From TrEMBL:
<keyword id="KW-0175">Coiled coil</keyword>
<protein>
    <submittedName>
        <fullName>Uncharacterized protein</fullName>
    </submittedName>
</protein>
<feature type="coiled-coil region">
    <location>
        <begin position="10"/>
        <end position="52"/>
    </location>
</feature>
Length: 53
């Protein structure tokens, strides 16, 4: 019974870890997307400024 309890806890911990990794990857992708969009806006503004000069 003790070994089953341990295996159950281990499975639960593995599932939690897997979910956390998925969440981390989703956050990383969101952050990358936001950084890229910011960079595009910045480059667009630089282009507009250089066209004004």
């Amino acid at each position: 019974a003790e070994s089953n309890k341990f295996q159950s806890q281990l499975r639960f911990a593995e599932q939690e870890l897997s979910a956390a990794k998925g969440h981390e990857q989703a956050l990383q992708e969101q952050l990358t997307k936001e950084v890229n969009e910011s960079l595009e806006r910045y480059q667009s503004q630089l282009k507009q400024i250089s066209e004004l000069e």
